[in-house]
Design a protein that fits this description.
The complex is a heterodimer of chains A (114) and B (113). Chain A is mostly beta strands and 114 residues long. In chain A, 0% of the residues lie in helices and 53% in strands. In chain B, the strands form two sheets. In chain B, strands 2, 4, 5, 9, 10 and 11 form a six-stranded mixed sheet that branches. The termini of chain B are far apart. Classes of the chains: A mainly beta (114), B mainly beta (113).
Amino acid sequence: KAGVTQTPRYLIKTRGQQVTLSCSPISGHRSVSWYQQTPGQGLQFLFEYFSETQRNKGNFPGRFSGRQFSNSRSEMNVSTLELGDSALYLCASSYEGILRSEQYFGPGTRLTVT
Amino acid sequence: SQQGEEDPQALSIQEGENATMNCSYKTSINNLQWYRQNSGRGLVHLILIRSNEREKHSGRLRVTLDTSKKSSSLLITASRAADTASYFCATDLPKAAGNKLTFGGGTRVLVKP
């Protein structure tokens, strides 16, 4: 089985811009979750999508949004970028969801905001 | 503060030695998971242990869970240089807290050849 893929792998944006990150889960997995990892805050949960519905959400402002398509692929959007949004964004897929089964992580997208 | 917190923050051992790291959490959980992350890359799932389980093994890995103490430990036996990585525990929060999955700050393990 192919693993979780994320595109792009690296991204440089300017403050105020918006960005869209993409994640393709393992075939057959219905859950896709997103995480932000920074040296200061560690690994933080953003949200989980399951069968096209947002099922769980972390404590992030509304500038962070996402969606899931019928083929389970997911996108995450960050609007009005701030310097503090520079981070490694990881997505993970699982069959039953974040609370019930192990997650398989992609390699991440490293976003730098200047 | 985080739901799961690992201890120690960093660990340096010689190849062949065992490495033990601990995870403490605050609220009741349904399950606890351990993940490994090599420098700046995605996480790799190691073991999921449910709240009604006390111990689980996977190859050279042994995970214990003590729900009365709200703690878990990960033991890596006969460590290898390839085990050098950061190790994270992840716990689920109850529905009232938003059904989130929270990760601890991680333990950085360095295995010296």
